[in-house]
UniProtKB/TrEMBL annotation:
Parts forming coiled coils: none
Keywords, in A-Z order: Oxidoreductase
Cellular component terms (Gene Ontology): membrane
Signal peptide: none
Entry GO MF terms: electron transfer activity; FMN binding; NAD(P)H dehydrogenase (quinone) activity
Superkingdom of origin organism: Bacteria
Protein name: p-benzoquinone reductase
Length: 206
């Protein structure tokens, strides 16, 4: 099958840290010739009263302003691509409800097997080193298996990055105040994950 290999990066981000990993993953995708990264955010589903409290935070306002030009994801976005990478902050060791709701809405695609054979990967952020990153990544991988996707994680071939991230996907810690941006090493791992997923997707496409 000739043509461009397209990788969709779908994420949810409150303070912009998960978004920065998403952007780095997208950079990695584009490092593979003939591959294109498509970034999408999932819709906000937070109760209005909670959202109003968040909107008083300068950090939240800044992050939302930086992400405003990234379109909102739709189920149609998932269909015309060769790979999908989901990302979320860790909420109680699980994916954020906003991303989970979007994934739960993919049932019509599951019924028709429309994601079968696509390459998939995951990434996340958490407030601390043991704040639920690995649990969130593993939980995010399960829907990909149900959809019959081909899961691709990160590798340790670059041993300079062996002391960060996880085998399950890219990750970073943001601190209790959400103000610790992903480190250069975190971004390098994210970029490597995007490149690897794009490489596999391109090979499978033929």
């Amino acid at each position: 099958m000739a043509g461009e290999t397209k990788i969709l990066v779908v994420f949810y981000s409150l303070y912009g840290n998960t978004a920065k990993l998403a952007q780095s993953i997208g950079t990695g995708v584009t490092e593979v010739p003939g591959c294109t990264a498509i970034l999408r955010r999932v819709p906000e589903t937070m109760p209005q009263e909670t959202l109003m409290q968040l909107e008083q935070s300068a950090a939240y306002q800044k992050a939302q302003e930086e992400m405003k030009d990234i379109p909102i994801a739709t189920l149609e976005d998932l269909q015309d691509v060769d790979g999908i990478i989901f990302g979320s902050p860790s909420h109680f060791g699980n994916a954020a409800a906003q991303l989970k709701q979007f994934i739960d809405a993919t049932v019509p695609l599951w019924v028709k097997g429309q994601l079968v054979g696509k390459v998939g990967g995951v990434f996340c952020t958490s407030g601390s080193l043991h704040g639920g990153n690995e649990g969130t990544l593993i939980t995010l991988l399960l829907p990909l298996l149900h959809h019959g996707m081909i899961i691709v994680g990160r590798t340790y071939e670059d041993y300079s990055l062996a002391n960060a991230g996880t085998p399950y996907g890219a990750s970073s810690t943001s601190g209790p105040n959400h103000d610790q941006r992903p480190t250069d090493q975190d971004l390098a791992i994210a970029r490597s994950l995007g490149k690897r997923i794009a490489t596999v997707a391109k090979k499978l496409k033929g």
